[in-house]
Design brief:
The structure holds two protein chains of two kinds. Chain A has twelve helices and eight strands. Chain A is an alpha/beta fold. In chain A, strands 3-2-6-7-1-8 form a six-stranded parallel β-sheet, with helices on both faces. In chain A, strands 4-5 form a two-stranded antiparallel sheet. In chain A, α2 crosses α3 (54-66). The longest helix of chain A has 18 residues, at 95-112. Chain B has one domain. Chain B has helices spanning 9-17, 27-33, 48-60, 69-74. Chain B is built from four helices and no strands. Chain B is an all-alpha fold. Classes of the chains: A alpha/beta, B mainly alpha. Chain A binds chain B through residues 200-205, 209, 235-239, 242, and chain B through 8, 11, 34, 37-39, 43-46, 49-50, 53-54, 57.
Chain lengths: 252, 75
């Protein structure tokens, strides 16, 4: 049985230094996660920092307003592109400027509120541009700030978790995060991985491989089915692609 | 399932490196190298690439051995 915490519970009550990452294809899933994460924090008297694209900020604000949190003074919104430009030199994030700007902002918020929750999508802007090295460096900078100050962080990447090309990227992204949120319904994901594996492989072999995958779960917390897909992709990429193909047919 | 089908050339090279001679790469023969099913029934439908990948993993991790390994490496 998969004992991984479901994402709504995780984002509502993150650990003090959790650095979570959500991958999404459906933007409504992103809005729901940000609403649960930021909305719960604001309801508990915590501060929230949202660094997002204009179209996402609008959606998040609308959802937060609808939930009664829109005009909170504890909520600070920054534009992702403009903020990124302030600490990027020749396409790469620069630590001193990042530390001063982002670390300074969080430190100010922590003076007034017991806890800070941050949501950021600057990494996704870099990733979607193809600046993957810069995105990973920025993730590492966030982790450095996390070692200096206590706050939780949610990142989000627009990626299709059922696409084989996602997997090489996903491994490097996972290494920077404590938790991966890959799907709205973890039970459905786990079941889909199991069913697809049964279709692609002999049932007893599928069971054996999924058991092996479960015993090699990565450091990053994630649903068992997602861990199995990552393991399959690392060890049996052709089989993984067939399993993903079955899942696409089943879930899309 | 076509027992005569062969895995991709890339996988066949890996199988050879692990001691499975090219003459033993037909699906029917690769399945014989897999550990037997616990219920004793034959393996169900799956293709040569998948069997080859599973074998490569199990052999490279030392989970199973290749009984003809020495001869195969020489082949």
């Amino acid at each position: 049985m998969d004992t991984t915490l479901d994402w709504p519970e995780l984002v509502r009550h993150p650990g003090p230094s959790d650095h979570m990452v959500q991958i999404y294809k459906d933007r409504e899933f992103l809005v729901d996660a940000v609403l649960q994460y930021i909305g719960t924090g604001l309801a508990h008297g915590e501060a929230a920092l949202i660094i997002a694209r204009p179209e996402h900020r609008e959606r998040f604000l609308h959802a937060l307003e609808h939930a009664g949190h829109g005009a909170s003074p504890a909520l600070k919104l920054l534009d992702a592109e403009a903020t990124l430009a302030k600490f990027t030199v020749d396409g790469m994030p620069e630590w001193t400027a990042f530390h001063s700007l982002i670390g300074g902002t969080i430190a100010e918020m922590r003076l007034q509120y017991p806890t800070v929750r941050a949501y950021g999508e600057m990494v996704d802007i870099l990733w979607q541009r193809g600046d993957k090295q810069a995105a990973i460096r920025l993730e590492q900078f966030w982790n450095e700030i996390g070692r200096l100050q206590t706050f939780s962080l949610l990142c989000a990447y627009a990626m299709d978790p059922l696409h084989g090309d996602t997997y090489a990227d996903l491994e490097s992204i996972c290494r920077c995060h404590t938790h991966l949120i890959p799907a709205r319904d973890y039970a459905e994901l786990n079941e889909a991985v199991f069913e697809a594996s049964l279709k692609v492989l002999d049932p007893q072999l599928a069971q054996m491989l999924l058991t092996l995958a479960a015993s090699h779960r990565p450091h990053t917390e994630m649903p068992l089915g997602q861990a199995a897909l990552i393991w399959l992709n690392q060890n049996m990429p052709r089989t993984a692609e067939r399993v993903l193909g079955e899942m696409r047919a089943q879930l899309d | 399932m076509n027992p005569e089908s062969l895995p991709s050339e890339e996988l066949r090279c890996e199988l050879v490196a692990l001691g499975i001679a090219r003459e033993r790469h037909r699906l029917g023969e690769l399945i014989e190298i897999l550990p037997a099913r616990l219920d004793g029934r034959p393996y169900e439908d799956f293709d040569a690439d998948c069997v080859a990948e599973v074998l490569i993993y199990l052999l490279s991790q030392g989970v199973i051995g290749n009984r003809d390994g020495h001869d195969a490496r020489l082949a």
